[in-house]
């Protein structure tokens, strides 16, 4: 079996991805460290899952949301370019809305007087939960083992 090399930007090169090797996608993202500075954050979102009960149908899922969508799609594009043509034709990209909850804590200092220099311990804290939906993307890459 001959090994071919795929050259990416900034002179980084890696071996061509073989669909049967589960660690190569992780290696691909790590090899792009200088090209893609936020690779560690994306690496946490890489999932290797079984699509069905069968052992030979598996896929990688790359997730991104908010500001990371462009970065996620860039990594997915690098992966798709490295795969065989019959595998890259089966890649599916899903868009979705992700609900994000932020906790807002406000201090109610209305009862505090201007000449009172005591600590903030006496003030009331109000906690509000703020929900907002942000766009998200999932790239499903089938891997046959």
Q: Would you mind describing this structure in some detail?
A:
This protein has 145 residues and is of the alpha+beta class. The chain has a single domain, classed as Alpha-Beta Plaits (2-Layer Sandwich), CATH 3.30.70. Helices cover 22% and strands 40% of the residues. Strands 3-4-6-5 form a four-stranded antiparallel β-sheet. A two-stranded antiparallel ribbon has the order 1-2. Strand 1 and strand 2 form a beta hairpin. It is rod-shaped and about 65 Å long. The two termini are 17 Å apart. 12% of the residues are buried. The N terminus is likely disordered.
Write the layout of secondary structure elements.
Blueprint: E1 5-7, E2 13-15, H1 24-31, H2 39-44, E3 46-50, E4 57-65, H3 69-82, H4 85-88, E5 92-108, E6 124-144
Antiparallel strand pairs: 1-2, 3-4, 4-6, 5-6
Concise synopsis of the structure shown:
Pfam families: Rpp20. This protein has 145 residues and is α+β, with helices and mostly antiparallel strands.
Strand order of the largest sheet: 3-4-6-5
- Which percent band covers the strand fraction? 35-45%
Which CATH architecture? 2-Layer Sandwich
Cα gyration radius (Å): 23 Å
Percent of residues in helices: 10-25%
Q: What's the count of strands?
A: 6
* Shape verdict: rod-shaped
Mean pLDDT: 63
- Topology as H/E string? EEHHEEHHEE
- Class by alpha and beta content: alpha+beta
**What about the largest sheet?**
4 strands, antiparallel
- Sequence stretches where pLDDT stays below 50 over 5 or more residues: 1-17, 32-37, 48-53
Distance between the termini: 17 Å
Enumerate how many helices there are, as a single number: 4
How is the CATH topology named?
Alpha-Beta Plaits
Count of separate structural domains: 1
């Amino acid at each position: 079996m001959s090994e071919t090399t795929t050259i990416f930007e900034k002179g980084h090169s890696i071996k061509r991805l073989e669909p049967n090797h589960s660690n190569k996608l992780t290696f691909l993202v790590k090899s792009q460290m200088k090209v893609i500075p936020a690779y560690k954050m994306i690496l946490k979102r890489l999932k290797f899952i079984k699509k069905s009960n069968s052992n030979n149908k598996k896929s990688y899922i790359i997730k991104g949301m908010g500001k990371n969508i462009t970065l996620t799609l860039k990594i997915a594009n690098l992966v798709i370019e490295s795969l065989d043509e019959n595998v890259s034709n089966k890649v599916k990209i899903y868009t979705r809305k992700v609900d994000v909850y932020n906790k807002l804590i406000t201090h109610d200092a209305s009862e505090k007087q201007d000449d009172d220099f005591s600590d903030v311990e006496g003030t009331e804290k109000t906690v509000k939960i703020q929900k907002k939906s942000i766009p998200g993307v999932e790239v499903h890459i089938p891997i046959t083992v």
